[in-house]
Write the structure tokens for this entry.
Amino acid sequence: MKAVTWQGKRDVRVQDVADPRIEEPTDAIVEVTSTAICGSDLHLYEVLGPFMTPGDVLGHEAMGIVRQTGNAVPDLIPGDRVVVPFNIACGQCYYCSQQLYTQCERTRAPGQDKGASLFGYTKLYGQVPGGQAELLRVPQAHFGPVKVPETGPDERFLFLSDVLPTAWQAVEYADVPEGGSCVVLGLGPIGQLAARIARHRGAGTVLGVDLVDERLAMAQRHGIDTLDLRTVKDVGVAVRDRTDGRGADSVIDAVGMEAHGAPVSTVVQQLATLLPDRLAEKAFTTAGIDRMSALYTAIDAVRRGGTVSLSGVYGGMADPMPMMTLFDKQIQLRMGQANVRAWTDDILPLLTGDDDPLGVDDLVTHHVPLDEASDAYGMFQAKRDGAIKVVLQP
Ligand SMILES: NC(=O)c1ccc[n+]([C@@H]2O[C@H](COP(=O)([O-])OP(=O)(O)OC[C@H]3O[C@@H](n4cnc5c(N)ncnc54)[C@H](O)[C@@H]3O)[C@@H](O)[C@H]2O)c1
Ligand SMILES: [Zn+2]
Ligand SMILES: [Zn+2]
């Protein structure tokens, strides 16, 4: 079969690889009909190379038709249309029974001391072949796959694999008071949907921040107020101006460590000067501080006693954190990968009607044949041609 493989930094190629087959009684084989490229794939494309092996099959946002099942997958039969959650969970262990599916004890990669295995995501997370391929082997298929209606375009349901539950959890963790204010940093797919979900779930003011025209425009056409980082020099000041001088009740960071284009803000410099010299120097000389700029902005823009919800992925142990400010402002910080199956039952009913309350019909900007994945990755990373969400079609 054809699959999108990682070969090196910024080098992704479509290759012929062996067809997957049933290896465990709890496996299923899904013929992929749509599979999206995610902001998280850009971390593999760029900074997480050391954890990848040339030939790894990428992709963790896939849906399709069940073709085969092992004999311990009672709820699926060939022909079922399913979406596959990006994290692989057993549904029964200590963590799964608390709906912390990203921490599943049964699928963790041995010896890595990390959470549950993920499709198409480094050896830290099990090196499981991903879904940007014609066929996908789905482990733990007695639990993971979400059956969806047979009719309706793939994009209606595809984002149950990651983007929708991630945005939903970001809003849940943000704990926005009824009628309260919520700032969303980053208007990629996660930020777009988090902003819409926050409003759908009762936030009074939702303010999105980005620096790319078409991303700001997409948020605006869904009724979200925006700040353009290219012209607003200090997001914290702008947010306080709109919130009686206090800051937002909740801030969602949907940027993560690929933060770019953002100059090291004055607040970062101020925070770094609070550190002892040796640490401040380290802070400025490691790439860390620049990559953390969205997180610093979040901590600055939230009000005292407010909540910061991180869905952007951060890596690295050496990144300095403004602990003094976090503590002084009594900020609540929640984060982590989305526990996909914890939210899908809440979200699915919002996807099946004609009214499309979350506007999922307006997210995909490009449909590309799987064969052209290499160029599609380049386009998505550079945000060329208005790319916001790219769906590959095998
Ligand atoms: N927690 C999870 O389970 C989970 C799941 C999926 C994605 N993610 C992470 O969420 C983040 C967003 O994903 P995405 O697919 O929307 O990615 P994306 O790269 O498309 O979006 C990021 C957006 O942030 C903007 N941006 C960059 N620097 C900024 C700054 N300093 N301030 C404000 N905006 C800035 C970019 O212009 C872009 O629009 C990524 O880090 C991704 O890895 C987490
Ligand atoms: Zn994803
Ligand atoms: Zn489990």
